[in-house]
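Example: DUF4442 domain-containing protein.
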Amino acid sequence: MTQTQPTIGELLAATVPMVRTLNLEFVETSAERAVLRLPDQTEFHNHVAGPHAGAMFTLAESASGAIVLAAFSDQLSRAVPLAVRAEIAYKKFAKGPVTATAELGRPAAEVVAELDAGERPEFPVRIAITREDGAVTGEMSIVWTLRPNS
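Written out as structure tokens, the predicted fold is:
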């Protein structure tokens, strides 16, 4: 009998209640890129019938978490990934489903080398939030760290 490992999407849905609450869809998850989609759901609309800013923030933060898990899954036995700080800019009106695409801002090998040297590395993840027509409705940057286990 073969036992399969859960996907990153399954793992995040099981451990992060907001991922389940918003019904986030994991389109692509790799160490190079993570793409998540927030379906159009009236219960998460704002006053102008678009996705609420908090829902878009959670979408982007979840995409960043997915790429961090994909890029550093082999380090989880010795370090915990934690978001340090985040900044978001809402650029255009969002309507309907939106997608967040996350990419690491530094090579993973560089981050692991700092961890190997006994440091607590920090690294940025950049996220673009887009409408179905491809227009960028928001941009987010999150600085993450790998906190070594004590």
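The domain at 8-148 is CATH 3.10.129.10 (Thiol Ester Dehydrase; Chain A).
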